[in-house]
Amino acid sequence: MSYYRFYFLVFVFLNLFCPELVAQTGSVSNEIVKDLTKEACDFLDDTNYEKSLEKSGIALQHAFNIKNDTLISRNYNIIAINFHELGELDKADFFYHKALSYAKRSNIVSLRMMITSNLGNLCFFERKLYRDGIAYYKESLKFGDNSKYAEEVAITNLNIVWSYFKIGNFKEGLPYLKYINKNQNDLKGKSNDIALNFLNGMYWSNENKNDKADKYFSKAISYGESIDEKTDLLYAYLEYSKFLNKIGKFEDAYKNMLSYNTIRDEMTNKEKLKRASIAGFNLELDEYKRQIDKIENEKDSQYQSLKKSRIIVILFVLISFILVFLIITLIKNIKFKKKHNLELLRAKEIAEEASMLKTQFISTISHELRTPLYGVVGITNMLLEEHKELSRSQHLSSLKFSARYLLSLVNDILQINKIEENKVVLENLTFNISDEITMIKNSLSFLSQKNNNTISVSIDPEIPEYLIGDKLRLAQILMNLVSNALKFTKDGEVEIIVKLNKIEGKMYYLDFLIKDNGVGIAIVDQGKIFEKFVQVGRKDEDYQGTGLGLSIVKRLLGLFGSTISLKSNIGEGTSFSFVIPFEHDPQKTKKIIDEIEVDLTSSDVYKILIVEDNLINQLVTKKIIEKNNYICKVVDDGFGALEILDKEDFDLILMDINMPLMNGFETTKRIRLKGIKTPIVALTAFDKDEITDEAISSGMSDIIIKPFEPVKLFKIISYLIHEAKSETSIKN
């Protein structure tokens, strides 16, 4: 604002030494000022900022002379709009507030509404102060009722819709859009019709109703091409181009963007802006002249009783004091901001450090829990297989259940942490939706029998046999929802319904519905159940669970670009629904299947080396390997592995990672330095994503996480040994 003070001093000089330059203009009638004001508005509509500022400046001077607050306010508003359009935001803000102060004096409600709405435009669209902008719009609506000021109310509602839609908040903007659609006759102007139509287009585009969206955008542009005012047409072309690009009509999108650029160039003609800036400069000088004249008039009576020199001295001292005070305040503010910025930087570093510590803590705890769990689960299975008489032992069953429950808790915590750290990436695997759901149904049969429930499955026959997508994440979503339904249902039915929603190119959108007739969820609790660690008791019963299942479901669906819907009433059951797109491409499916096929028909006996420091895990892993009739040897650490490999050959090595003396990565590197090409599989309790890069760089062939399914381990062993032998035979 330093240029304001400069202009002020310039006019002090002119008033003291050149009084002939500031003579008052003669008084004119209200009608003449109104005509000048209208001319200024017309020039503004034609984007002739130079003429608009010139006319509004003359009208403003006359309005001051006849002391008409309404006309003063209107012309200040016109000047502010000119500067707003020219990008002079500080000047626009200054004149808007001047206009608002005189509008309050005149008590013209429609004028106050318009100026407040303009301030909203300035804050929201130009300064990106979104909350301030919307607050101004809503403040504008408070000045008048809907019937008396219908046009002003409709235009302000239009601005609110535009504001919410610009930041992508279609839900908040929808009620205001419905209002102006219902009362669109109150807008009274094709320019507003353009905005209303392309806002409707934006809404239906967001709802993926492309036909409706295209209709409204086309209507907006047809209106815009029939009038001279091009501002709203400019935005219509821009939003229509975005929509066409979104639906894949790239050529049409490019044409609309060309139209947008053409209009924008016309509206920002450099010569116009240059001439308008000169007129604006003169207008600012006139404004400060009026301020000085006002001060001089108010002080006339004081000058009559005091000597002129004394007043000048007092004013000089006062101004000097104010300047010193402002300089001191400025210095303090600068120091405070520097200190505050340092505190913010430190707080950011602390937050990042805390996030890293959290990740490391979860990783360490998961590893320390998985290692003993591997032993507990493995030994329990061995006891059940070797001693069939113990299969009905409640103690052994409880032990196995508790171990698997604790493992599920660890996996849930790891899963939610990985999603929050943006470390989950969806994979493309081929699968049959019917097979996947049947597997889920079978795996949950024990839980369904426990509460005497049935699981029914209905799959739309129009869904292709093979789809491509992340079947593991889909299975996790369905497992969580179906197991949740079974827990809260007794003597009832849980339905899994999959329908084909729509087809877009190769993408098939599947509509999933998980429905039960259990106890239901109270309306007051429905907003809480997707939060972490929240367990809502639907009855006075103690249900087990981590409180993470539905939170994981919501976040996994977010990765698919989908959301989940909930319908439930107490005593009537609950239904969850969501839509996920999957690709259907027979050629791509065949390629994926060919790549993952593994020959498991070989009856060869393989020799396996286990490198593991934990005695219990040695026992479990060796028992699993020997059960498949493989020859197995065990060493306690990396040095033992290097020693035995100098003497014997093995078909495959199972390598623990976290070992004393020398870890699995270093051991693998030394084995590779010896020229040994034997496949090495990392058998570890660490999360796979945490060690993949280091495992590959050290020379490992694959990774399997403890506890594991034996079938999965043997598939990996067979595949790697077969691949290694094929490479050897090709070289020979």
Automatic annotation (TrEMBL):
The modification 4-aspartylphosphate is found at D656. The gene is rcsC_17. It comes from Flavobacterium bizetiae. This is histidine kinase. CDD domains: HATPase_EvgS-ArcB-TorS-like, HisKA, REC_hyHK_CKI1_RcsC-like. Its EC number is 2.7.13.3. The chain crosses the membrane at residues 311-331. Residues 1-23 form the signal peptide. GO terms for molecular function: phosphorelay sensor kinase activity. Residues 278-305 form a coiled coil. Keywords: Coiled coil, Kinase, Membrane, Phosphoprotein, Signal, Transferase, Transmembrane, Transmembrane helix. Residues 364-584 form the Histidine kinase domain. InterPro entries: CheY-like_superfamily, HATPase_C_sf, HATPase_dom, His_kinase_dom, HisK_dim/P_dom, HisK_dim/P_sf, Sig_transdc_His_kin-like_C, Sig_transdc_resp-reg_receiver. It is an enzyme of class 2 (transferase). Residues 607-721 form the Response regulatory domain. It catalyses: ATP + protein L-histidine = ADP + protein N-phospho-L-histidine. PROSITE patterns: HIS_KIN, RESPONSE_REGULATORY.
